[in-house]
Amino acid sequence: GSLLTGYLLFKYFPLARGSGIPQTRAALFIHDGRISLRSVMGKFVTCAISLATGIPLGREGPAVYMGSGLASVIAQRLGLSRLQVRALIPVGGAAALAAAFNTPIAAVLFALEEIVGDLHAPILGSAVLASATSWLVLHLVLGDNPLFHVPGYHLVSPAELGAYVVLGIVGGLSSVAFVKLLLWMRARFAKLPRASLWIQPVAGGLTVGIFGFFVPQVLGVGYDQVERVLNGDVVLKVVIMLAVLKIICTSVAYASGNAGGIFGPSLFIGAMVGASVGAVAHLLFPGSTAGPGAYALVGMGAAFAGIIRAPFTSVIMIFEVTRDYTIIVPLMIANLIAYYISQKLQKEPIYEALAHQDGLHLPARPYGPRKEVLRVNTAIREAPQSLNPEMAISDAAERVKDSVLESWPVADELGLVGMVRTRHIAAAMDQGRQEMTVARLMQIARRSDGQRFAEVPHVHNDQPLSRAFARMRDTGHNVLPVVSRANPRIMLGVVTFADILKAYGVESAEQLDYREHPDL
């Protein structure tokens, strides 16, 4: 199988290697959503051969690529715009994953969380519609069956949560070991001569074949073995051995270039790791812990969260593939711990790391520390003493002569009435209008501006700094008053163009790089 798919991948379908998730994101962010029908068919054929011959990779990642590819092909044939073609990529992926896993909710979450990288993406409605439709077709064709049939596990005692914490730790460490081994092996294969690409998958196939000759359970995705473990058929030595062998076999098979995903293997690894921890916990505390099957169920979610790094999807997906809600709290705890450990020990998520190995630099996903939007209150400074509308220009000029502010607030007894430019004050002095009032000068300035601004230019404390920039552009003032939302005549301070630049870490406008600050 590896020899045949290796030749097909090298000769005809070079984009069909691996899981398909990095390629899907590359199509979305680099190629304007364009995926060829040739690549879709290549992924279908090569994955079918790989999985049928026992390669221990999953079908779900390739399904996402094929679903996204079909959506792209249809959109292109219909002559849709570039933005519409891009928008349909995650929609097609959600539809395919909903059918592959029988998980319509998790499919939508994965499309937003992993493919798009934004849980607030505007394609949510389309993804829901596509996922629901795909799920309906699946049920009409194959019936209504969950991926795994699981007994109704529950939390035996509150003290058992400690065992699930241990499972989260072990699951996180196992996830890191798997990801690092896979990336290390893939980097080694990448250094081999390009002419050997067609035969490299054989290294994975041969490794799996040798292990599978002695331990047949490592062949294929292994969902049948997962279901047996979930139902309590656990021998401690066997599940530990299967977890280790699956990590090795999947890493070699994927790194050598076989077609297939890592969704399924991550669930297998998690189930075996969870069953191992559960067997030990039940052996030590038989009266206060559930059987190993419950821990295998939670371990699946923990490994998925640690390997795929999609924490929201992992919780919902385990619930949907088993339809067992009673174990949700231990699942959330173990997932959180595994995700945290994985994030600390392996900074780069696996799909981003795979893309980087291929020379692609895709946008980072938002979960993890998001760059916080800077607000006006981060750049505000104390307001200068306001000018009175009835003040003479000569007095106003004396007040502002040593200031670097280009505009100055004007306020009466009721509060702020407007802003006057210091250059207008200087011009009035040069014209001999020392006795003119500030109010009169402001009227003349408004007329010269064509009455464009009926209200006082201002911003609020909680608005983004980008809004202050836009307001400065519209009004021509490089100094804006920051006013209260309760009463816009109450001035809290002022914000200047220079202060905003400093808040962004820029000393002058000439140094401003809009690629680093796209909100500007």
Q: What do you see in this structure?
A:
- By secondary structure, the protein is mainly alpha-helical.
- 58% of the residues lie in helices and 5% in strands.
- The protein has 21 helices and 5 strands.
- It has helices at residues 2-11, 21-29, 37-52, 60-77, 82-101, 104-116, 124-142, 161-190, 200-214, 223-230, 236-255, 263-284, 292-307, 311-322, 328-345, 350-357, 393-400, 422-430, 438-448, 465-475, 497-503, and strands spanning 407-412, 415-421, 459-460, 479-483, 491-496.
- α20 links the parallel β3 (459-460) and β4.
- α11 packs antiparallel against α12 (263-284).
- The longest helix has 30 residues, at 161-190.
- It is elongated.
CA(first)-CA(last) distance? 53 Å
Tally of DSSP helical segments? 21
Average pLDDT, all residues: 86
- Say how many strands there are: 5
Apparent shape: elongated
- Which radius of gyration do the C-alpha atoms yield? 31 Å
Strand order of the largest sheet: 3-4-5
Order of helices and strands: HHHHHHHHHHHHHHHHHEEHHEHEEH
Classify the helix fraction into a percent range. 55-70%
Strand content: 5-15%
Give me the secondary-structure category: mainly alpha
Biggest sheet, open or closed, and with what strands and sense? 3 strands, mixed
Any low-confidence stretches, pLDDT <50, length ≥5? 366-370
Quick overview of this protein structure:
The chain has 520 residues and is mostly helical. The chain is 58% helix and 5% strand.
